[in-house]
# Entry
Amino acid sequence: REPYWDDEYAHQILGYAPYDGLLVSKAVVGGHVKTGKYSEGQAMRFKREGARKFLRFEEKDYPGTVMWGDCGAFAYVNEEVPPYSVDDIVEFYADGQFTHGCSVDHIIFQFQSDDFELAFEDQEVKRRFEITQSNAAEFITKSRNRIGNHFTPVGVVHGWSPASMARAASELIKMGYNYLALGGMVPLRADQIKSALDSVRAVIPASTQVHVLGFAKADNIHEFEGSGLSSIDTTSPL
# Structure
């Protein structure tokens, strides 16, 4: 097997795309800052050709589809700070010719459905929250100022409770985001995800779109109908 040359994707095998788009994480592609699952040659080809051509998912063949990019925060969850700078990620999205790109986030795992105030020992949670918000402010400015950039900046929302996620979302709206993505949702139950979504939805404009990153609850998707959820990504069907 030669990965790039021999592999085929679901949309090639089926003859149609059973999804509205694909998501690629920077942590999977890798690069000079942090190695990923791609070989050096694959990573160079990805940068040179762009995500759609690399994944054989070109717009002309699959019209109306999207190509999302994120940082792959689960891959560096144990690091003190994200290994990628905002400049690294803006360049990755621009080179990959993505339609949507997520801000540089740092996962918070201590989510609880009941709202509570952080105690002194929870300062690591607060630090990650502030890193994510600071990166989001820098990201939207730099992504809009980059010449030739055509991706929609997506602000990633993290928090330790529904109220803190609502606060983060409100700040992202003030920064100028029109599309938000709820992060850190993978290990949560469906009802916890719903509580976070409802709190965020209550404080943002109706026109703002909301995505859930890593929605692994395919059996519960019907519970989210009518809740203002615009899109999800998941590998669970695979």
Notes: The first helix runs from residue 3 to 6. DSSP finds nine helices and seven strands in the chain. The longest strand covers residues 152-157.
